[in-house]
Amino acid sequence: MTPPILDPLFAIAPGAGDLPRLALVAPDGARAEVYLHGAHVASWVPAGGQERLFLSRTSAFSPGAAIRGGVPVVFPQFSGLGPLPKHGFARVLPWGFIGAAATADGAAATFQLHDSEASRGLWANAFLAELTVSTGGKQLVVTLAVTNTGAGPFTFTTALHTYLAVADIAATTVEGLAGLRYRDAAAGGVEGVDAEPQVRFAGQVDRIYFDVPAELRVIEPARTTVVRSAGFPDAVVWNPGAAKAATLADLEPDGYRRFVCVEAAVIAAPVRLAPGERWQGTQTLVT
Hints:
Blueprint: E1 12-14, E2 20-25, E3 31-35, E4 40-45, E5 73-74, E6 96-103, E7 106-114, H1 117-120, E8 127-136, E9 139-148, E10 154-160, E11 163-165, E12 173-175, E13 181-184, E14 190-193, E15 198-199, E16 205-209, E17 215-219, E18 224-230, E19 234-239, H2 241-245, E20 259-273, E21 278-286
Antiparallel strand pairs: 1-2, 2-3, 3-4, 5-10, 6-7, 7-8, 8-9, 9-21, 10-20, 11-20, 12-15, 12-17, 13-14, 13-16, 16-19, 17-18, 18-21, 19-20
């Protein structure tokens, strides 16, 4: 991946909690905000549009704490499916800003995370993770790449834990998953096949879908968001519902009503990288 040329128009400035943040603005007005803390995309406004990512107003913006909302980077472990802290460590470590630039049809920025004393204390592998965020027109593109820079192989699971803003979760559906096998974490991890044409949200929904198509659709009465993925064979659909949401200290009251997570993921078959090998996955949001 060739990092963007550093453009002096794009500068790092303090954001919430004084954490460093990049405002990425395309020539057509499309905009994204990315915190170096976790390389966390916290905002996306398409050209001529409105905010399309949910961000909790009670989220902690402090070193070592995960940000609730936006697009957290899950690496090198999804959820609690392994010995590491939930969702790994990439979302709570500072990433380096490599560069950003505007083009005729958008703007892009690249961030990097190397193994460090902090990461090796949890996961004894040498790696380079790169996150590239680009926006322009009606889309946001997030690409995660991981390179094994060590002397031995390793495996990992990963996801882009995307919180899409919705007007009302009760009136929201997700299409494109009918007939697919899934694991239902809300039901204790039982597996089944989705026989419904749409995923609906009458309470907590926490499902990992396997071997998903390249395009899913989040349908609301007044708009549709297309979620495309490449390199991510699985997808997670999540909303905590009222009861679970009440236990989440960093989620504002009734905040669950205003988002649905549709996450590009690698879970069922972990990525295995030999020394020097590189993996890449992309999620594209289109409104």
